[in-house]
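Narrative of activities, Objective 1.

The group set out to show that a structural description can be obtained from nothing but a protein's sequence at a throughput compatible with the screening campaign. Below is one input-output pair from the validation batch, recorded exactly as produced.
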Amino acid sequence: MKWVKPKPLSAICGVDGECPDVEELANGHCGFGIRELAAGKWVSTELDESDGDQKYNRAFMRLFSYISGTGNDQGVNIPMTSPVVTQTNLDENYQQNGGSMHFYIPTEFQENPPNPTNEDVEIEDWDDVIVYYRAFGYKGLYVSPEVWKREFGHLARSIVAAGLSSDWSRAITGTFTQPGVSDQRHEAMFVARGHYSYYYEPSEYSWNDARGYKECKRYPNTVKPKAVESACGNYAQCPAVEDMASNGCGYGTRDIKAGSWASTDILASDGDDRYVSAFMRLFNYIRGENEDSQEIEMTIPVITKSYLDENYEEKKATMHFYLPPEFHENPPAPTDDLVEIEEWVDTVVFYRTVGDYDENSDVKALWEKEFTILVDVLEKAEESFYPYMAVTATFTRPGYGQQRHEAIFLQWDEEEEE
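Output recorded for this entry:
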């Protein structure tokens, strides 16, 4: 299946018909576009599964009847717009679970559109929304399921590779041109979750600013980490912290303020997939698998704690997601018995940054090296730290773009000794 160049929007919108207002957003990634779709009214209908193979044609005809005048209470003809949007709902196994079709209502009817006369057709008010999209052309009458599957696959992989997040429960298609014409445009789309447009230029940060502390001369620069201020509050929320003075070089000191965290054990029984399995339990919790069916925005960093015995061998490990402040007072209860909500107190920590690793890195050796250095610099600075809990914090997706990871030890507190 060869990819076909799509017809440009400039040759469709305002030429073949009206399109909703959109703004193309800055995008430093490849494989997809980012745009904000302005709020507006759309005429909509559910796909009726009892219609079988004709469900899309019959949904289209219900909407077409509305705009042609026979299906609205004023009998007025409403110009056809682009694109025809179809939303397919996906279950937890990404199988189709119903859907809907939509026509944008032109500007002259936006304020007071005619009422539908068919009870299966309704007018919807859509809010501003940011979508990630992938465009393609087609030679033929109707785009085949294989092509849609290919394009959604490419789109999903590109979004994940960019370290972005989407609402994966809705696969959205946009068809901008008539079936069978020579030049066509179709788009596969996912709605963005927590998208933030921001500018980041590593050269604007010194090494010390990017790290958050002054490095010791005996440890040469390797890969500059992403500055924490460029991540927290830009594309994701972080727990509140207070930076503190350190006694030496090679590490930073901060006070992490009290808050609520979703937590789960990293199970040895899950083998090589234990970290992924733990992550997905927490991710499922924030995407709505809780007693309130409440979706919660992803935050950073992802925290992993390794509890060590007297020989510094791991005896237990846990993973944690910070919950945004609006959920601290009454966080939704998990429905998974392996997930719990923990209340953390103010905690002073010492940290050392890691700028880069990917799927080909020896991650265990990398962390061992950084924790060994962290021990060295803390001991030379005569800091009191707890050596039997090794904490990692990941602020960015491993292997993609500018990265920031931290190796962390807690400040020693004899009264709170494990």
